[in-house]
Amino acid sequence: MSALKIERGASSHSAYDLRDPHSSVEEKHTLAVLVDNEAGVLARVIGLFSGRGYNIDSLTVAEVDHSGHRSRITVVTRGTPQVIEQIKAQLGRIIPVHEVHDLTVEGPSVERELGLFKVAGTGEKRLEALRIAEIFRAKVVDSTLQSFVFEITGAPEKLDALAELMRPLGLSDMARTGVAALSRGI
User: Fold this and answer.
1) Beta-sheet strand order (sheet of 97-102)
2) Which Gene3D superfamilies does the annotation name (predicted)?
């Protein structure tokens, strides 16, 4: 599978893309942006979103090429097809941006998120929290007499489901990394 690379100023429309670009239905898209790892780049990318009123559902960034000083920014956002195309085009025009990939339209991808959940409780609620964590394959990474901290990795929907089940059992705090994503295949 070939990756979609948006060159500065180039359009990413395809004759095989049958979605209506003028649709008003919002869609969730995961964008992977390869940038120079230098001061101010993240602020410029995020400024593009805030300056135009686009929302970010999830954001992760880390250096992925130490010798080339490049970082990968993964952004999950929502918008109509027209808005998503506009976001991709505008990202492609920012000078330290090298590549913009829309993993949602490029084909199958793998998305994962790490979450830490603190659940405070005693007695039966404590035991139930342990049972649910086992079902979700969450690991206990800290334990006191009053609480557990569970670590879970999976699709964002899996973390949402665990949080929903842990709330009545004493979910008192939560930290989530945001989505990390890669396209499948070559």
Assistant:
1) 56-65, 70-79, 27-36, 97-102
2) 3.30.70.260, ACT-like. Chain A, domain 2 (3.30.70.1150)
Quick one: residue 42, left, alpha or beta (phi over 0 = left, psi -120 to 50 = alpha)?
alpha
* Rounded (10°) angle between helices 156-166 and 123-135: 170
Note the pLDDT tens digit of each residue in 26-36: 999 999 999 99
How many domains, in total, are found in the chain? 2
CATH code at 173? 3.30.70.1150
The answer as to whether 7 is a domain residue is no
For 81-115, the pLDDT digits (tens) are: 999 999 999 999 998 999 999 999 999 999 999 99
Return the higher-pLDDT residue of 163 and 94: 163
What is the model's pTM? 0.78
In 3D, which of 112, 111, 172 has the Cα closest to residue 142?
A: 172
109 touches 181 (CB < 8 A):
yes
